[in-house]
Every structure is written in C-alpha cells, then in structure tokens.
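*** Query protein ***
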Amino acid sequence: MPTSPSVASAPASPPRVARDRRTDLIVTLVALALAVWVTSGLWRDPNGRAITVNSSDQALFEWLLAFGGHTVTHLQNPLFTYLINVPDGVNLAVNTSITVYAVVFAPLTYLIGPPATFLVILTLNLAATAVAWYWLLSRHLVDSRLAAAIGGLFIGFSPGMVSHANAHLNWTAGWLVPLLVWRVFALRRTGHWWRDGVLLGLLVAVAFSIAAEGLFFTALALGVFVAVWALHPANRAEARAVLPSFLRGLAVTAVVAGVLLAYPLWLHFAGPQRFHGTGFDAVIHSEDIAAYAAYPRRSLAGEAGFGTSLAPNPTEENSFFGLPLLVLAVGCFVLVWRRADPGRRATLWALGVLAVVFGTLSFGPVAKVDGHRTDLPMPFDLFGHLPVVNAALPARLALVVTPVIGLLLAYAVDQLRRQPPRRAAAVAWTVGFVVALVPLFPTPLLTIEREPIPRFITSGAWREYVSPGGTLTPAPLTLDVYPDGQRWQAYALANRQGEFAIPSGFFLGPGGPDDRGRIGPVPRPFGALLDQAARTGLPPIVTEGTREEVQADLVHWRIETVVLADEVHGAKWPVDEDAVRRTLTTLFGEPERVEDVWLWRVQQR
C-alpha cells in the first residue's frame, strides 16, 4: 500500500493553508471547466441533442433515470420492470441500473427532464473523478498540490474516461475508485476496523448500484496490489501486524454490503430474466496491443489526424495513451525508483505488477496487433470462462492502467519539486510532460440533433388510445438501434402522465448463444418485418402466413396501439419511415392521423 508523505511536525502556517485551499478551488474549477468543455455539444441544447456515436446508450440511461424516479414516487421495484419487454419483463439487476443515481437525482429528473439530468450527471462524473483523484493524491500520497493536480486531471480526463463519456454514466463514475482505494487502505488502522468496515461496506453497495463491472475490476486491482505490496520484503512485517485488523474490517464490509445487496445479488444470479455471460465477443472487445501507443479520436492528436480505429467502437478507447506518454511513464518510474526508500519501492513494484497484469489481461483471449488477429493465446483465455469474469469485457481491464500512469506522473512531479534537477534536466522533463500530455487534451464529444418526441406523447394524447398499463408499440419496435420507444416512455414517466408498456426494448436479457445474454429479446416475426422495412426501405411481401404470425405476436405482447412518428431515430442507420408505414398499412389497413403520428388501433382476434 502507498505510504503517506512525510509532513513537518509543526502545523502549517496560515499562508500555506490559504494557498492549499486556493489550489483546491482552482483544481476543482479547472476540472468542472474541462467537463463542461467535453460535454459542450450537449449543453447547447440538452433536450434537443444526442451523442452521435452512442445515442442508444444515452436513451437507455435517460430511461433508467426516469424509471428510477418513477419507482420512488410510486413505491415500485427499481430492479425489475414489466414496462418494457412485455410480457416477460426485464431484470435490471443484471443490467446497468444506476439505481443510486436514479433515486438521488429523481427530483432533478422531474424538474428538468431525463435528458438534462443525464447531462448533469455525466458532467459531474467527469469533474468529480478528477477532483477525487486529486484529493486522494494531495491528502495521502504526495506533498505537492501541483503533482496531485497533474495526476488527478490526467486520470479524470484520460482517453478511456473521455471515450466512455459517450453516454456511459456507469464507467464515467470514476470518482468511486479513489474513494474505494482510500477506504481499503483505512482498514490497516488498528482499533477502527468496525467503523472502517461499515464505511467500506456502504461504499461497496453504492458502487455496485452504479457500476458493478467497475467495482469488480477495482476489487481485482486492489487484490493484486495489496498482495504484491504485502509480500514485498520491505512490508512483510507491517503486513503481518495489520493483517488481523484488515481481515476483521473486510469481514464487516462483507456483512454490511451483503445485507444491503442481498436482493440485488439474488436477482443478479438467481432471479427471473437473468443470464450468465454476455453475448459480446471477447476477441472483438479486447484491447489491441498497438492501441496502447495510439491516440484517441477525441483528442488534439485525434483531431490532427492521428486517431485510429483500433477500438471496437468509439466508446471503448480504453488505453490509447500515445507512445510519448508510455515513454514518460517509464521515465517517471525510473526517476522515482532511483531516489525511493524501500517502502516507496515496494509501492512502485506493486504498481508496475498491476499495470503489467491488467494490461496483459486486456488483450483478451488472443493477441491482436494493429488490427490483425494472431493465434497467440493470452492469459485472459484461462479465466474468461469463469463466472462473473465471463460477463466482463477484457478491453475495459485497460482502464486499470490509467490510474497507475496518473500515480507515476504525480510521484515524479512531486520528486522533481522536492529535489529540483539541474536546469537542462528540468527543461527536458518539462518538454517530456508537454509532448506526452498536450496531444491527449480532450476535445468535445460529437453530437447530433435528436428527433423530437411527438406531440402525441408530450400532450398526453396517447392516454386516449392505451388502457392504463396497456401496451403501446412504437414502429419499428424499440431496440438499441431504434431507441425512441424508451425515450417516449421516459418522457411520460418523468412528466407523470402515467404508464404504458412497450414490447421489446434496449436491455440485456437471456436468449443469446450458449445460454448467454443478448441485447433485447429474441426476435419475433412482427419486429423483423418492421426492421426490414426500416433498414432497407423495401416493404416485405405479406402472405396469409405472415398475417397469422403477426397476429400471434400481437396477442403475445397484448398490443393495443401501433404508433409511427414522422421522424424515427435510427442509432446506426437512417430509418425509412415511408416503408414502415406502407408495411403497417398492408398489415392493418389505413392509419389514423393523431396529432403528429400515424396510429393503428389493433383488434386482437
């Protein structure tokens, strides 16, 4: 475990305290300004714009915020719902339910709407991550506030964090990690194991409800770090001395977190609509070895044309540090190592092992180099089939390397400020930091104008065509590629218009290959017909057999009304609304024009 910096025995003078507080404020304001800068495209019109490369995930998180607030005011189960995927429902415990966010921000969701609340949380996530790491560094790990600021701001706005800012409210909640690190280190204290265990248990429960996969990775990383640190010769005596208190604290943590998470964990592993493992290909969603030296797309280097397509999608640029930063990190390691005492060397050794282990695991089952798959097996292949591990994407393990680099940067700057080098060396180090970090300076997320929610929904007119709790079907059916249905539902819930259910939806559920998970439900004929028309612009041929299959789907979903908006959002491709309307007209006859939508009342036989 990292050792705390030495401090003078005399209390800090008022000027020093004032300077430190002023620095804290400056770092906080800089972090907030950078967060607003990254998300500035959405701030132009929070309710009218969406993230270009991941509008479907944005719609999902907006729906989760609206649904979570609705469950609070209506005393419903926040972890299971029948409002989507009628009639089977969705187990949100195996999805990213962000329950704590939904509950805490419920008043804001009702006040300004799900899209604007989503943007507030996303912006605060980025700023809070940088500030939380700055706090941990400045209070526990380094003397220099400048060193802490560089380390914290790098981690908070690293390529991985900016990449996941493309709509991932779970992964951008990186502020949880330094808090978990802080509370785990606190378990070393003798005489406080009960209180420290309770606090860590509460924090684990919060982290699970916001970012369960991130909590899993953090626990693995802390386990590796603590084991390597404790086994180092310089720390064995201390580790043996604090081990009883540490284990008692962990036991209390397990009891507290276990009690708070008993129902979510039961739902996750044994509840209805659960699944084991995901339908994502571990080879596709693994980190390319060359990605570590590449530049991310949303950076100055990326804007200058040095970005790559080595990630499976723009939200998963989990490493992408650039070669200069990798060289600088090694240089920082050597600098600090050469002047470190045995305790600090033990910390550096543990950090190095942590970076190598998680960097290697991020390569997935087989190595990929510059976009080309090799036959070289990787260590992840040995563990990827284990329970829980099989639900994680190996590429995201690279996110653990980011704090290691941030710590090395902070340690090096702290060392250079305490023992200033000669002028030439100081210039060289300054140039090195500039060359490594300036190209990674983040650029704003790409955004697009989103299709407006129809007046049919915003006016509440839908209530005349759907019985209370009945099923309204957007066309095409709601999926990750057609997220409008959940946007409409989120609006209705947040504006207290009442409930309507929808078939299908964007969620993770059972039905994938080898009994693994999949996005959305197993396709049915009616949904496939509308998808074909929307995607290709060619209405399918409808036979009597087709009509019978569609009728069976209508009965299965208990559909009362089918609705087609004038503008339908396609998250991956444009939607041909005219082809969808002609398909529905062939199936159900001429539609009604209600407000600004086409509507078919379904007569189930």
